[in-house]
Amino acid sequence: MKLDPFYLIVDSAAWIERLVPLGVKLVQLRIKERALSDIRADIRRAKAVCAAHECQLIVNDYWQLAIEEGCDFIHLGQEDLATADLAAIREAGLKLGLSTHDEAELATALAARPDYIALGPIYPTILKVMSWAPQGLDRLRDWKSRVDPLPLVAIGGLTVERIAGVFENGADSAAVVTDITRNPDPEQRTLAWIAATRSFRGEG
Ligand SMILES: Cc1ncc(COP(=O)(O)OP(=O)(O)O)c(N)n1
Ligand SMILES: Cc1nc(C(=O)O)sc1CCOP(=O)(O)O
Ligand SMILES: [Mg+2]
């Protein structure tokens, strides 16, 4: 399976409606602390926009809602994975991405036979408090040799300026939140990400 090299992560359908039409091809809807009915409504809106723009939608955490809403890709962390019904996820035909932060999590993730593995935080992140020190680029290269042939997603503190480094060290896709959503001009920054990842998309 191939992932687009630019992996946008946002916390609402409104962001997806705003940024996906610019040419984003891989987006995660990562909503925290909202009512289930609101999250379901946002999944529906996100799904419609992504279908119209040939963008792969990945739903974070809410695997039951993703199944019920006919989505085809979810992302789970290790705590999510511990309580998820993998058989139901497979039965529904969902593809699965998993987070990893250390050796034990990598072993757990590989045993679950995911469709991609994410490693983070590569650099310090301001989005959430993390229990892990930044992993760095050497660790990313090591992870690639361990997860290959699965795609490897780099996440945490990524910026346009850091894109080349993660791809040179084994990432297949670079996931980003705040470099775009907290930029004064999210549309321009999204276009900068699309341009900066072009050569890693096989577009020369
Ligand atoms: C691509 C990607 N990688 C890692 C994460 C983090 O997932 P998780 O550890 O479950 O933490 P939350 O995002 O749920 O806070 C991710 N969402 N996406
Ligand atoms: C949601 C998330 N998960 C991480 C992990 O390491 O698993 S790092 C992270 C935050 C990514 O946001 P930003 O691009 O703003 O740093
Ligand atoms: Mg999670």
Automatic annotation (TrEMBL):
Record's protein name: Thiamine-phosphate synthase
InterPro entries listed in its UniProt record: Aldolase_TIM, ThiamineP_synth_sf, ThiamineP_synth_TenI, TMP_synthase
Gene3D superfamilies: Aldolase class I
NCBIfam families, alphabetized: PRK00043.1-5, thiE
EC number: 2.5.1.3
Family the entry assigns: Belongs to the thiamine-phosphate synthase family.
GO BP term, pick one: thiamine biosynthetic process
Pathway field: Cofactor biosynthesis; thiamine diphosphate biosynthesis; thiamine phosphate from 4-amino-2-methyl-5-diphosphomethylpyrimidine and 4-methyl-5-(2-phosphoethyl)-thiazole: step 1/1
